[in-house]
Design goal:
The complex is a heterodimer of chains A (about 120) and B (about 110). Chain A has about 120 residues and is mostly beta strands. Helix content of chain A is about 0%, strand content about 50%. Chain A is built from no helices and 11 strands. In chain A, a hairpin with a 2-residue loop joins strand 5 and strand 6. Chain B has about 110 residues and is mostly beta strands. In chain B, the strands form 2 sheets. In chain B, strands 2, 4, 5, 9, 10 and 11 form a 6-stranded mixed beta sheet that branches. Chain B has a 5-stranded antiparallel beta sheet with strand order 1-3-8-7-6, with no helix packed on it. Chain B is globular and about 50 Å long. Classes of the chains: A mainly beta (about 120), B mainly beta (about 110). Chains A and B meet through strand 5 and strand 10 of A and strand 5, strand 9 and strand 10 of B.
Chain lengths: ~120, ~110
Amino acid sequence: DSGVTQTPKHLITATGQRVTLRCSPRSGDLSVYWYQQSLDQGLQFLIQYYNGEERAKGNILERFSAQQFPDLHSELNLSSLELGDSALYFCASSGTSAPRVTGPLQETQYFGPGTRLLVL
Amino acid sequence: KNQVEQSPQSLIILEGKNCTLQCNYTVSPFSNLRWYKQDTGRGPVSLTIMTFSENTKSNGRYTATLDADTKQSSLHITASQLSDSASYICVVILSGAGSYQLTFGKGTKLSVIP
């Protein structure tokens, strides 16, 4: 158990809909990362938040957005869902202290169990 | 285009045997290179993190090596166990100008059989 929790575990929805995925980081971790893993694309980094602020963006679509709240939990919002958005979405956390520079240079990231999203 | 290529795509070995997984990358120079283990349907677990200047890092029976000249990294698993059956993913992190980029390999699926 990594200490990172994600809800829900499974989500089935229809095209065009909007969903929200939730992540609670390990106690004390300030950084939260979101990843998408599909069968054909593999793992892709979406976005990082550090202590409530967006820190880095990866291959995140404009239809997707995220935020990190004062209690450090994070939500990933996916809207106008398409069939191709079906994937496993992972959240990871790291960093109990301020990173020296932007990015996960030396920190171990702890991944949650993921949310499996199926868009029909 | 920055790429990370892993080989083989899949591998079957007998319990107790050693194996080596390969990761070739074009991202250079990079900040660090990581190996993850991912059990089916679960989140990845970090095995090793190496900076550009390191050439080996161990974590129990897992040893990662890095050759910056040939742009290759290897993950060597010693005395394999059934629990080593998983996908192993290589990730290269490039940072600069206040941001960073992660490039993931597609992974090697390892099956350890009795």
